[in-house]
């Protein structure tokens, strides 16, 4: 069935600036890009595409659909598992891919794979000891190779223990959540899904407020002060709250809280609309509907990306749908 882009109401735009280059220099630049690209370049009418991995992000956990659970910029002492999430594009099944982990710049672990995840989308890899023991403090590096060439790498640190920790402030959810939204928040807080529980915990942990308003033109919106790592607020439209079910309202809260954690764990200068961020937010929304048994809503509005036989989301189809709906946003 055809996908309906109009269902994606929270459309955020960010346009990348493009520098004008003279004809001669542009031609030379294109030749250089061809020579430096990983994999086999494919020439289109105006563009050159090559197999690549996008920016790597790290988290404490990850869902089957490659949505990070508790994203981090550094891991706390006692970490037992490092998860890495990254998008991919222009891949071909059968391509040789190597996943290599370094510890303090020394080889730690590696695997060789034949790619079998399709042309574009998002995926993840992780590392841990088989016996579940803690990872040593230090710098862990993930290096991804395509056809024997380094395609992407990223570092993350597991911190060493410290003697004293600053106690976290105790916040009461009732002081942060509009009474008319409490039931929707509780759906997240008391679900059996780790990701949804973690999103609910952002409210007391960071002091993120959940409020109803009639001053937004979308179902929900996350608002924060630009340039500051303040918690911000999640607003839900009064009209949306009146018309929709508790499960749908809860899903929208999960969507916007996902943007909140993205903001709080990212470099402020680069934070903005990306396909990857919208993918994570919509997946959180879908998890609410699946956890609460509202597959009927998924089938009605998202039949092109939901498989009722398996009860799972076709994540590559969702990625493509978001590319169409958020066409001005970069992939990552």
Please give a structural write-up.
With 332 residues, this protein is an alpha+beta fold. Helices cover 30% and strands 27% of the residues. It contains 9 helices and 16 strands. Strands 3, 4, 5, 6 and 9 form a 5-stranded antiparallel beta sheet that branches. The chain has a 4-stranded antiparallel beta sheet with strand order 8-7-10-11, with no helix packed on it. α3 packs across α4 (194-207). The radius of gyration is 21 Å and the shape is globular. The chain starts with 22 loop residues before the first helix and ends in a 7-residue tail after the last helix. The model is unreliable at 1-48 (pLDDT under 50).
| Mean residue pLDDT | 86
Radius of gyration: 21 Å
Q: What's the N-to-C terminus distance?
A: 27 Å
Overall 3D geometry? globular
Percent helix range: 25-40%
Q: Which ranges are low-confidence, i.e. pLDDT below 50, for 5 or more consecutive residues?
A: 1-48
- Number of DSSP strand runs: 16
Sheet bearing the most strands, described? 5 strands, antiparallel
Count of DSSP H/I helices? 9
| Order of helix and strand elements from N to C terminus | HEEEEEEEEEEEHHHEEEHHHHEEH
| Structural class by helix and strand composition | alpha+beta
> Which strand-content bin applies to the residues?
25-35%
Short characterization:
With 332 residues, this protein is of the alpha+beta class. It contains 9 helices and 16 strands.
């Amino acid at each position: 069935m055809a996908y309906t882009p109009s269902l994606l109401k929270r459309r955020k735009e960010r346009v990348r600036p493009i520098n004008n280059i003279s004809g001669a220099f542009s031609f030379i630049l294109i030749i250089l890009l061809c020579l430096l690209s990983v994999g086999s370049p494919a020439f289109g009418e105006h563009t050159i595409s090559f197999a690549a991995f996008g920016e790597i992000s790290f988290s404490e956990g990850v869902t089957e659909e490659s949505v990070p659970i508790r994203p981090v910029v550094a891991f706390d002492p006692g970490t037992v598992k490092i998860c890495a999430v990254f998008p991919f594009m222009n891949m071909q099944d059968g391509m040789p891919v190597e996943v290599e982990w370094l510890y303090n710049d020394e080889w730690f672990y590696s695997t060789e794979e034949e790619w079998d995840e399709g042309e574009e989308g998002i995926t993840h890899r992780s590392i841990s000891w088989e016996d579940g023991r803690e990872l040593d403090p230090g710098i862990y590096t993930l290096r991804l190779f395509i056809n024997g060439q380094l395609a992407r790498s990223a570092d993350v640190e597991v911190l060493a223990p410290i003697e004293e920790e600053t106690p976290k402030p105790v916040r009461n959810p009732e002081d942060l959540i509009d009474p008319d939204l409490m039931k929707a928040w509780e759906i997240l807080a008391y679900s059996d899904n780790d990701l949804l529980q973690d999103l609910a915990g952002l409210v007391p942990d960071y002091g993120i407020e959940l409020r109803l308003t009639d001053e937004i033109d979308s179902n929900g919106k996350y608002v924060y002060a630009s340039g500051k790592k303040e918690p911000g607020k999640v607003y839900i439209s009064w009209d949306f709250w009146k018309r929709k079910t508790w499960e749908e309202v809860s899903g929208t809260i999960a969507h916007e809280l996902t943007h909140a954690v993205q903001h709080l764990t990212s470099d402020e200068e680069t934070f903005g609309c990306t396909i990857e961020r919208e993918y994570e937010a919509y997946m959180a929304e879908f998890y609410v509907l699946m956890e609460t048994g509202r597959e009927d809503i998924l089938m009605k509005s998202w039949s092109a990306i939901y498989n009722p036989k398996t009860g799972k989301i076709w994540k590559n189809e969702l990625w493509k749908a978001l590319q169409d709906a958020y066409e001005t946003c970069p992939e990552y």
